[in-house]
Amino acid sequence: MSLTTTSPMSSSTSSALSQLTIGWSSLAERTGAITIPDGADEVEVIVAVQGGLDRVHPLHGWDRLIDVPGRGVARSRNAVIEATTRRYLLFCDDDVQVDLEGVAAGIEYLSRSGSALALGLGTTPDGVVRKRRPMGGRERLTSFSAARAATYEMLVDVEQVKAAGVRFDERFGAGVDLYLGDEYLFIFDLFRAGRRADAIDHVYGIHPADSSGHRWGAGDARVRAAVLNRAFGWKAPIVRLAFANRHAEKLGGWRAAARFALDGTRP
Description:
The chain has about 270 residues and is α/β, with parallel strands linked by helices.
């Protein structure tokens, strides 16, 4: 899918985008990296900034800047949820290029399906799809498959999110000590609130090949254990054991996997 619009959008795409907010989260010194896609005139564009609005690089095409105090990307995500005036919200990072046609297709899916979240796809800059969907192009997410979610793949129905009282857990995510798992816990909490989330085969944008979710150092294992402990509570030891058995090699071998299985770290 093209990242720019070279011909007039269809009426259905235009209608979908009129219901959309894109919420960028960025540090002040990185706002110059944000690329607002061509054809976003109907989209509400919000940029949540940490580090002071006086340090923001000149931006064009945004509707609102939000000054977010404190640390952690989850704070910025939550600020965007509160600020949006549209029905659907795509979370975005400053290193993502958005594909509006793919996002519009995601909105249409949400409006038909009644799901609270449609997890789309991202590609690397050379066009490689980062994840594959099963036959049929969509799947119902579960408490386990949702662990593969990246924030820039998350398109949500804001009305359902607010009705469910779900927000990002600000103890997790980039910028704080427990720097992984904020996306997973958000989706997990949607499930706990009785909401549905699906993965679909529409591309929402381009992201660099490297991702925090691909990190597997000793410190990363501790954070992953804390995520599972927060999500599963008293069932967490069973889940940690299953996770350690499946990912022993990535964790650094069976000794490291055993440490992970016994790790009761909590936020």
